[in-house]
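Re: How this chain folds, sequence and tokenised backbone to follow

Filed under: protein folding, tokenised backbone structure, sequence and structure records.

Contents: The amino acid chain and a row of whole-number tokens, matched residue for residue.

Body of memo: The sequence and its backbone structure tokens, given next.
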Amino acid sequence: MNKREKCVYCGNRIISRSKEHIIQNALGGLYETDDICCDKCNGGIISRKIDAPFTKIFSPIIAMLEDLPKTHNTKSKIVCDGLAIHNGKEYDVKIKNNKVVACLELSKELKCDASELEFEIKGYRFDLENEVFKNGFCKIAFNFALDKGIDLNVLSKGVNVQKSLGVVDDISFRYLMLPFVALNPLDEYIELDTKMELYHNLVLFSQGSMLWCYVDLFNTFQYYVLLSDEWDEQKQVFETYMQLLQKPNRNIPDICYRSIKDILIDAARYNVEPCCDVDVFSKRVRAAIQKESLKKSVSDVISVKLGKDYIDFEKIRRLAETGTGIDRKILNNKLKSMYFYFDEDDKFKENKFRQYTYMEGVGEVSYTLAINELIGQGKIELSDYTLKKFIRMNDFLCNHFCQNKKTHVGGL
């Protein structure tokens, strides 16, 4: 594919190629391209107006993550706004690497370097400024679509570039954003009941005349971005990107295969070629674990999450034997959701994920249209799902990444 000749923002010819991260590098994004904008816009207006204020929102999360993957500034530590207690009184402070590094009020009051004082960190502040939040999400969707070959003319209606004397002095995005809410039992299970993992996930897809991009940051902030409502219905688009934000576990598990199905499950999990020679296959699995990348397919991550506790058939058998009632409607809905996403070989259907959902009494429906309709009817409570996602992330960070065990993430 030919390289883009002109910057998508200023319109000037790209003389010096500049690597632009599809998801901001400060958020651990590894996916980058040099085919979007010039180095002047990338290092100037984009960084200052879009990326810096957007990534600052997530500072409390980034600051608590060990070994967040980055392609540059790998050792830099973020300074966060927060609250801390000194001598029984609460103060606004600056926190870096889980340590108070500045407190303007105490520095003036005691005429000293506040970083030398003893503090108990109480929590972090999240500055969820709506316009900054929206611009950051829309820019990610815009970048992903461009890199996947979507014509700039299709996307340009949602981009507002202001110039003075030919120089770009402001950029903003006007795309519609729709929050994601899990609408079927399997999605609720995956999002709220499985082991928490931090990852970024993008899904670019077309439905009729609409072109959408699903953006999920930290497996917590989940939105659809409507990039176009004038899409050519004859052109089908489906592109995905998923990246873990934790170092892969390279410990070699005890490998024991009792059946062909066990081999097929690990073949899908580690993306290796299956074979009936257990010794040969075991070597393939061990080699795959040692080379495991942070970049994954959606199927890699979601398939593994479907544990036996989603539908506990042993528990159902015991209930049936004791004559205890089984809610067959709930059970049937769980089964139908599972069969909706997985085929008869237990292979995950990626082209369904976040595009369509199964709803009892209705069947297969567009996820975006269903969410939009249910919100309009007041039938779903966004704050309830959002709060549960925040609590999961908060618990995960505190249990696995807090260096100071007294620290908790305030505001979540």
